[in-house]
Amino acid sequence: MSATAPRAGGAPHTEDGVPAPGQFGGIPRGPEAAAPSLVVHALRDAILAAAVAALLFIPLVGLRTDVAPNGGLLLRTRWADVAILVGITFLGRLGVSLWRAVRPARAPSARRTAALARIGLFVAPVLLALAVLLPFLPGVGRYHLDLGILVLTYVMLGWGLNIVVGLAGLLDLGYVAFYGIGAYAYALLSQHFGLSFWICLPLAGIMAAFWGVLLGFPVLRLRGDYLAIVTLGFGEIIRLVLINWTSLTGGPNGISGIARPSFFGYPFTAGGGPGSFADLFGLEPSPSHRVIFLYYLILVLALLTNWVTLRLRRQPLGRAWEALREDEIACRALGINVTNTKLTAFAIGAMFGGFAGAFFATRQAFISPESFTFIESAIILAIVVLGGLGSQLGVALAALVMIGGFEAFRDFAEWRMLIFGAAMVLIMVWKPRGLVSSRTPSVALGKRRAIAAEHVGQGAG
């Protein structure tokens, strides 16, 4: 029977017996509406983006309060700055829309992915060598060492959160809580029990892991946005406890006078003396000795985090994390214990956050709840996402760009936040799956080949 063969009654029908379009009250198909031209669509998109930018920049940039000579408040307007920012937004969005429309669609290239993997094999040793030799490079002073310590701290935190978000696919917005638990655990154990840094460090990690397990139990059945909300609430609960439990944590005043680490019992003293670090190695006493020691200490802790993560990823536990990230239902069907898999991801990720918190406490010698706010969790999560979920090298590069680059624009004062935000937007437009989007399979039959990120689930929790 033909596609529109007439049946009894004379009405044409299709092969499956359904009347043809336009028959028996059907809506006749007219000519399809012409699609708007490319330029018109791009202009609409750019005008909408400019309107949203104007709504944001008028109160944030256009209006500013200054102190008048008589001590009152003076409202100052900056409409020229608003116009410049809105114009930049309009032109930028117009250019992005046109570029996306005219660029040829590129399918994932196995050759391109393999080339990026080879580049990564070269970049990682270079970064490691620079990190090891940084204190001895010419022109490196106290400021550069402090900045290196800060970057490595966030690298360690990013690698710890990467276990939860990148490998297990569990969206955690309260990771700073484990950071704070580790810091306060070290401070309290050191002050009240007189324990050294080397004893308090593992205890702080164990304490943070314990709270990671406690957080894991209520969120076992949650995914996506619900999981993010619960973890965000957990982080705020810990912060409020630190503020209000004044008898234990000191409340808003924090804890000061935290013991500094020693080189296996040899303290770093400014004047040297018998039994000091300088006396042990016959060196001239210098305050830089303690800074260099702290730098190498956080470097070792960060490398330990990386090594453990890579080892666990190749173990059955790591493969269970990745299976959970790809599809939780299929993971259950394969007989994997989803409960234990989630709990171990939270516990191990929290443990490394506790280690970083203990180091932060001993480096600063002072901690307060102001250091463990939600913005810290947002920064750590941004490092993981910008670097590439599941990528160790990508997280390190993102921490270097975000933390080190943010310091590079310190001279721009209030404009550095705008520059920093614009850079993040450009990175996500250019590399929506992170700086390092390729993945290396945990298990391979024969030759291990890198795979494109398009074939890997990002994990929504």
Structural features, described:
There is one protein chain. The strands form two sheets. A two-stranded antiparallel sheet has the order 1-2. It has a two-stranded antiparallel ribbon with strand order 3-4. With 461 residues, the protein is mainly α. Helix 4 (142-167) crosses helix 14 (374-387) and helix 6 packs antiparallel against helix 13. It is 62% helix and 3% strand. 34% of the residues are buried. The protein is built from 16 helices and four strands. Mean pLDDT is 80; it is low at 1-11 and 20-35. It is globular, with a radius of gyration of 28 Å. The chain has helices at residues 38-62, 79-102, 110-133, 142-167, 176-193, 197-216, 224-244, 246-249, 277-281, 288-313, 316-326, 328-333, 338-364, 374-387, 392-408, 415-430; strands at residues 63-67, 73-77, 255-256, 366-367. The two termini are 52 Å apart.
Describe the main β-sheet briefly: 2 strands, antiparallel
**How do the strands of the widest beta sheet line up side by side?**
1-2
Helicity range of the residues? 55-70%
Per DSSP, the total helix count is 16
Question: Which features characterize this protein?
Answer:
461 residues, mainly alpha, two-stranded antiparallel ribbon, two-stranded antiparallel sheet, 16 helices, globular, disordered N terminus
